[in-house]
Amino acid sequence: MTDKAYKAHSTPLLTIKMVPIDISVIVTTRNEEKNITECLNSIRKQSYPRDKIEIIVVDNNSQDKTKESAFKYTDKVFNFGPERSAQRNFGVRQAKGKYILYLDSDMVLSPDVIKECVDKCESGNYIALYIPERIVGEGFWIKVRDFERGFYNATCIDAVRFVRKGKFQEIGGFDEALTGPEDWDFDRRISSAGETAVINSCLYHNEDNFDLKKYMEKKLYYTRDFERYARKWGKQDRIIKRQMGMGYRYFGVFMEKGKSRRLFSRPLLALAMYFLRLSVGLAYVFNPGAGVGSQPVRLCLKKPGY
Questions:
Q1: Beta strand 203-209 with 133-138: parallel, antiparallel or unpaired?
Q2: What predicted TM-score, i.e. pTM, was given to this entire model?
Q3: How far is it, in rounded angstroms, from Cα 219 to Cα 232?
């Protein structure tokens, strides 16, 4: 058989066409065995094509079975720390997607989140999106937390979660010197790089059974870099005054854009919410280890912040 005849009769090699990754979902974890499965399962169940989504889990030295559970959903499970900022930046360095969605492991996506994010960014040329957040769990105080969180969506108290990877890299990602206010800092820098918007679909943040002591401890832990954040932007900065000032945090954010109707329509939840807000505020001011004891933050807390 001639070479020509052989080539005509031979079976061509199969060509495997690689499907491009559109979305890289980065989930940061630490000892989240009880939450990680529900989080990753919600990503798998998105209405957006599964083969165009990659899941990247960046764990920080978990001592439980978080990693083992994560490997059931993705082979991209890494160990990196020491805090969320570094974990997220590391995750983006591994990412192949055009867009980044970053989540905590106690968060669950509603089915259309990713599809709506992609559609909105592609049709409106937005560089980043806010995703409305609902607090879920058991008991009265979870209802209070959910009531409170609904006032913050797409305000300066919130932060974007869905971002074009190119823009993320352009602004340098998260500031790894910050723990706590790194979301606010990132939101400010990404918002200055292009247009942002908010979608309708929500994510659910599982706060389980509310424990006031643990809640306060968590809040105080994440205030430790408030001083550094305030100094970075300047104590006279308008957004700093809103984020840390009593005027906006206790009144403005609950009243603006017609939200006062919602506030006054649920008086019991509103009173309980103010109890939590005042408790956190007092703890910030009087706890010597909290970042808000610093000079620039104290000045913000004393001013109306409008």
A1: parallel
A2: 0.88
A3: 21
Q: Cα dist. 118→23, 129, 131, 163 in Å?
A: 9, 10, 12, 10
The tokens 């007092």 sit on which residue? 282
What are 240-289's pLDDT values in tens digits?
999 988 899 999 999 999 999 999 999 999 999 999 999 988 887 776 55
Sheet containing strand 107-109, edge to edge, reads 107-109, 203-209, 133-138
Give the Cβ contact number of residue 177 at 10 Å.
13
Structure tokens at 29: 């974890």
Write down the domain spans for the chain: 23-207, 211-302
- Label the pairing between strands 53-59 and 23-29: parallel
Q: What is the DSSP letter of 139?
A: S
Domain 23-207 homologous superfamily, CATH? Spore Coat Polysaccharide Biosynthesis Protein SpsA; Chain A (3.90.550.10)
Cβ partners under 8 Å of residue 44, min gap 6: 50, 73
